[in-house]
Amino acid sequence: MASDPSETARESPQIRRLLIVRLGSMGDIVHTLPAAWLLRAALPQTLIGWIVEEQWTELLCAAAEPRSGPRSPRRPLVDNLHVVDTKSWRKHPLSIGTFEQAATALSELRGQRYDVAVDFQGAVRSALLARLSAAPVIYGFRQPRETVATMFYMRLVIAAAGHVAEQNLSLAKAVLGASPSLPSIEFPCDSGAEKQCQTWLESRSIRNFVLLNPGAGWGAKQWPPERYGRLAQGLAETGLTPVVNVGPGEEKLARAVEEAGGGAAHTLACSLSELIALTRRATLFVGGDTGPMHLAAALGIPVVAIFGPTSPDRNGPYRTASIVLRSPSSETSYTRRREPERGLLEIRVEDVLAASQKLLGQRRG
Q1: What is the dihedral of CA 171, 319, 145, 11, to 10 degrees?
Q2: For the segment 204-259, what is each residue's pLDDT rounded down to a tens digit?
Q3: How is domain 191-364 classified at the CATH fold level?
Q4: What is the per-residue pLDDT for 7?
Q5: Four-CA torsion 237, 240, 242, 245, nearest 10 degrees
């Protein structure tokens, strides 16, 4: 039977092997990193594994780096990376390929003999994977994203109020039975991606640049690309070079920004490792509630965040210099509507440009 957090802290045994469960997405993994680094700092001798979807592995391990073994700058946080493809498995649940892949993944997972598993995702599939790891102790939130997930937990933790990163930290602190200070966060350093990014910037004589991210997880969060284009023009007039980051399938979005910007913006479609390298070099980031925005914040880049239906208190830039723009008429909703939210459209290009200049001025000061 699950106990309360105070009992959990007293009963926690010495942890030799610990498993983190957070499959995706990009922003959610970034929001889990403060908690993961807290665990790493407090348990330096503990072997730490992480279960993650294939497409997000580069947030934890450089592309060419082995996914297990001694830690290095190319895999600074975890000792073992357990990669799964649950999306494909759910699409083809009865195929031989799915059975073989799942069986191999679970065999490798169970072979590590983890003492503790911590489910930061709070979904049925993540909780099930935590249980299938055969860890004798599994931590999870008392009120997870999917209520059924609590069936798989042995220790239930009440999440802290406020930002989702703080909620994750409360789960890590319950595992430790203490509240140590938060260490710095490191991302994998992929030398190939770093070199390619630097070459791209030098070939265009780009030095001080602002990274624009017009994409969004769904339409209600997406500020119009034409406004990003006009913003690019305004930023270029201040001496900054606008660089537009777009993900797979966002080519049309990039063209709309370029056309509205009249040639002021440079577009770069890059891998996740290249995005990390590019973001490290940015002077400023401008975008909505997306994974790249949370990545920029985690890297300490100043952020102008354009918010609509989602709550900045829960999902805003975390622990970096930032200005959040949100209309008073916006109502918090996580419904995935296609059209931009009405309040989001009330944010003008002039508002974003003024916030950018103010934040840059504060940084220079």
Answers
A1: 0
A2: 999 999 999 999 989 999 999 999 999 999 999 999 999 999 888 888 999 999 99
A3: Rossmann fold (3.40.50)
A4: 38
A5: -160
Question: What sign for the dihedral angle of Cα 148, 150, 28, 24?
Answer: negative
For residue 356, with 0-12 CB atoms within 10 Å meaning exposed, 13-18 middle and 19 or more buried, which class applies?
A: buried
Taking only the tens place, the pLDDT of each residue in 310-348 is 999 999 999 999 999 999 999 999 989 999 999 999 999
Distance CA 16, CA 13 (A): 9
* Main-chain dihedrals φ then ψ at residue 335, nearest 5 degrees: -70, 130
- Count of C-beta atoms within a 10 Å radius of residue 55: 15
User: How far apart, in whole angstroms, are the C-alpha atoms of residue 206 and residue 266?
Assistant: 10
Which residues partner with 47 through β-bridges? 17
Q: Which residues contact 1 (CB under 8 A, 6 or more apart)?
A: none
Q: Which of 71, 74, 78 is nearest to 49 (CA)?
A: 78
Range(s) of the chain covered by CATH 3.40.50.2000: 5-176, 191-364
Q: DSSP states of 168-222 as a string?
A: HHHHHHHHHTS-PPP--------HHHHHHHHHHHHHTT--SEEEEE---SSGGG-
Topology classification of domain 5-176: Rossmann fold (3.40.50)
Residues 62-70: contacts with CB under 8 Å, at least 24 apart = 62/188, 62/189, 62/190, 62/191, 62/193, 62/273, 63/190, 63/192, 63/193, 63/271, 63/273, 64/190, 64/192, 65/188, 65/190
Q: Return all residues near 90 (Cβ < 8 A) that are at least 6 apart.
A: none
Residue type, 245: N
Enter the DSSP assignment of 148: G
CA-based nearest residue to 67, from 88, 50, 91, 90 = 50
* 3-state class (DSSP) for residue 285: strand
**Tell me, what amino acid is at 160?**
A
pTM: 0.92
Stretches where the chain sits below pLDDT 50 are 1-12
Q: Could you tell me how many residues make up the chain? A: 365
- Mention every residue, 6+ apart, whose C-beta is less than 8 A from residue 85: 53, 54, 101
